[in-house]
Amino acid sequence: MADEAAHEAGRPRAGASPLDVLDELPFEGAAIVIGPEGVRERRGDVRRERAWRSVTKPLTGYAAAVALDRGLIDLEAPCGPEGSTLRHVLAHASGLFYGSDRTLMAPGRRRHYSNRGIDLGGEHVAAAVGRDLEDWVREQVLDPLGMDGVRWTGSPSVGAFGTLEDLALLCGELLRPTLVGPEAFAAVTTPQLPELVGIMPGFGQQSPNPFGLGFEVRGDKSPHWTGHGNDPATFGHFGMAGTAFWVDPVADVALAVGTGHEFCDAHRELLPRLADAVLTVHRRRDRAAQRPM
């Protein structure tokens, strides 16, 4: 009975892996749990190439962080619609529609999720550093982290393909940054224009609806694809092709997930349970490791 109660509460049964939740997906799924020391646990085909779709956005955001750290870009520089800045477009606050140069309203008034904004931000970064964005991302992020399996197909918002092993390497970097300093890291992974409300794709109206620069920030969003136990400071992204990752800087744990189906109701139900199961086990592991002998 205790095992059944734990299962219903989103906690793994005694002796079970938190990644057992993946077995409940009605399609293929795989995942890797990452701690500061590296991979802690894995399940499924973590070497399969997957479409990252919007998980590309954090790659673009982190490449922008490298440029910011080196003084090559200014977040207040004009970019996008009149009155919009690089900060606005990378934080989905420029007023641009999802996929076009049309605008819904003036910049800085509402969070309108926009692939076009991220693409414009990527083009701005490329022009500022004097390199093709793919070359900049590869030289400054992918190669240093050993993310050799990532394939870039053009769009800064949705163009990357890669494995969960590649994504786990990015998660490890985000737990212990080596490529950028603390100010640039905070700029991309903490809320920008934090008071803005807006629609969270797949989860409806959120007030507020925090985003960093290329990264989504969990905040107090409900419903959400991360767990109830994830700290509000958790950041990451999900992609509509079924790939996702989150980094919880308070729990000091990250999770990379890939599935063989486009984002759907099964993801909405099971990804939060998976996150809570991972946090339950790996927080417990951390606390046990910290106890004096």
From TrEMBL:
Pfam families registered for this protein in UniProt: Beta-lactamase
Matching InterPro entries: Beta-lactam-related, Beta-lactam/transpept-like, Diverse_Enzym_Activities
Domain Beta-lactamase-related: 52-257
Name of the protein: Beta-lactamase family protein
